[in-house]
Structure formats: C-alpha cells, structure tokens
Amino acid sequence: MTYDVYGVGNALVDIQAQVPDAVIAELGFQRGIMTLVDEGIQRRVLAALQGTPFSRCAGGSAANTIIAVADFGGRAAYAGKVGPDELGRFFLDDMRQLGVTIEVSPTAGDTGTSVILISPDAQRTMLTHLGINGQLTPADIQESAIRNSKYVYVEGYLFGGSPSQREAALLTMELAKKNGVKVAFTVSDPFLISLHRDLFWSLIEGPVDLLFCNLEEARALTGRQDPVECASEIHRHSENVALTLGADGSLLMHEGKVIPVEGVSTNAVDTTGAGDMYAGALLYGITNGLSWKQAGHLASHASARVVSQLGARLKHKFTRTEVAQLLG
User: 76-91 as b/e, with b when 16 or more CB fall inside 10 Å?
Assistant: First the structure.
C-alpha cells in the first residue's frame, strides 16, 4: 500500500459544544486558548456540559489533517495511541471508515479527549486531556508505511508531551529522510516555540521540507513582524513554508518565491481545525499533481468552508467538480 501522507500525532476524540462565555468563565479557564487538563478536571468539564448538545469525532491536530487528505481522495495513514475503552474503539472505527489506514494496538489507559467550547463569536477554548497519548513510543512508528509515503506529517504538540512522544516524532523524521520521503512539520502553538525554540529551529534547518505555521507562530520563531519577512526568514532554512494569515489568506514560500494566496470570505462559526484543514488540503494538492499555487488556492477554500460550520471535519466535502472549478 502506498500513501500520500503518513501522519503522527495525539489521537483525541474531539467533543464540541456551543456555550455562552459565562460557562467558560464559571469553569475558570482562559477564553480562546488550549489548556492541558487532567482526567479529574476533564470529568468536571463534561459534567458541566450535561444537557448541552454536543458532537464528537476522531480528532487531534495531525489526525484532522490526515482526515482532510483522505476526504479529498488522497491515501493516508496515521499513527497515534488509544486505550481499549469505548472512546478508543470509536476513534479507530471513525478513522477507518474515512479510509485512513491506522494500525495501532490499544494500550491500557484512557483514550485522550479534547473538549472544544465554542463561543458565540466562533472563538474556541480547548481543554485537552492527553490520556494514553503520553505512551506513544518509537515502537509505534512503522518504517514500512513511511517508506511507501510521499510525505510524513508531524504535529508539534508531540514535543509538549512525554519524552517517548518526542522520540517517536524525531524517529518519524529520521526514517523519512532515510527513505527519501519528505517531511512536513507544524509547530502547532506559540507556547511550544517558547519551550522548544532551539529544537524547532534545528528541525527547520535539518529534516523539515515543509513548515506549517500561523502568523503568531512565525513571529515567535523569527522575532520579525511583517508576514513576508517572517516567511522569507524561515524559507532561508526550510525548502518550503506555508504561513497562514486567517481571513487574509496565506503565504507560501517555494523555490525562493513568495506565493500569496487569497483569503476566502465566509461567516465564521467555529475556527476549530482551520489550520489543520489548510495543511490537509495543501498536502493533498502537492502530492497529487497540483502546483503550489493551486494547492494553496484549494487549501484556502477548504479552511474557509470548515470554519463556516461546527467541528474540524467537513460536513460537505468538495466534489471533484468543485475542485476542478476552483482550479480552472
């Protein structure tokens, strides 16, 4: 089996609910950011949502991106860690039904969850309990799958977890380089840059062929403010850069050139997974014969569509006709 992209990340069941800001304040969390919580706190959060409609799906940053690749018709595989509980079975079944190859053995413990509280203005407050994800190890990484992939995709959140998670992420990149496979990496969050700036730069200067980041992350990495200057500075060290600018679109850096990609006007309902969707659509495009400009155009439309609905997964997938019209 060959794959366009092999992803590695935290396997989480996403639980999404629309709530007033007062609920977030009562729970005592800072609005609009991601907070790591323990099992006890997560149970308290879920108890507070009783009676509130919610949805759930397989998620986690890299998983969302891999699902997007599959949704566009690409071939994708994923490595993560789940428990033998109902949520773990749900995660595996959900991924496989979407066409993603996932060969992981459940390990005793709780499957990770991410509760996403969506404010009336579409801002998301994420409360993540990693659960069993901390036990992801290099033994969970499949060299045979990497060897048969065009790209590997690694999420930066793995560097904020356990030492074995970091080792698994680094091994994925190492095996990709060994087998002539390109490496895509997302730094995931500015707080990770504050903790691992030197390590992230060593990856950008080393195995990473394509770096995904948003403007806040790019500024944290480079110390510059202007988006083009940020992207150009990163491009001095990495072959390709995808810098997202929210409603203002994105900047791609490829072969020394700046490729501006327009934003797409939309009514934002939930910004969850916008960057993940962008990465998935771009990776699908560049591994399936699209130019970088075309892939960026597709990614911009995909991220606009996903923020116009609840959840990080497209409820209305792009048809082949729609994709052809976008690229025409």
Answer: bbbbbbbbebebbebb
> How does pLDDT run across 269-321, given as a tens digit for each residue?
777 789 999 999 999 999 999 999 999 999 999 999 998 887 778 888 888 88
Q: Rounded to two decimals, what is the model's pTM?
A: 0.92
Q: How far apart are CA 317 and CA 16, in angstroms?
A: 20
In contact, 107 and 89? CB cutoff 8 Å: no
pLDDT at 242: 98
DSSP state of 51: T
Q: How far is it, in rounded angstroms, from Cα 291 to Cα 305?
A: 21
Check residue 270 and give its pLDDT.
75
Domain ranges of the chain: 3-11+61-108+131-327
Q: What is the Cα–Cα distance from 244 to 88, expressed in whole angstroms?
A: 32
Q: Residues 43-100: pLDDT tens digits? A: 899 899 989 998 889 999 999 999 999 999 999 999 999 999 999 999 999 999 999 9
Contact 312, 64 (CB under 8 A): yes
For 247, the 3-state DSSP assignment is helix
3-class DSSP state of 228: helix
Pick the CATH number of 3-11+61-108+131-327 from 3.30.300.30, 3.30.230.10, 3.40.50.2300, 3.40.1190.20: 3.40.1190.20
- The three-state (H, E, C) secondary structure of 78-122, written as one string: EECCCCCCHHHHHHHHHHHHCCCEECCCCCCCCCEEEEEEECCCC
At 12, which helix (H) or strand (E)?
A: strand 12-18
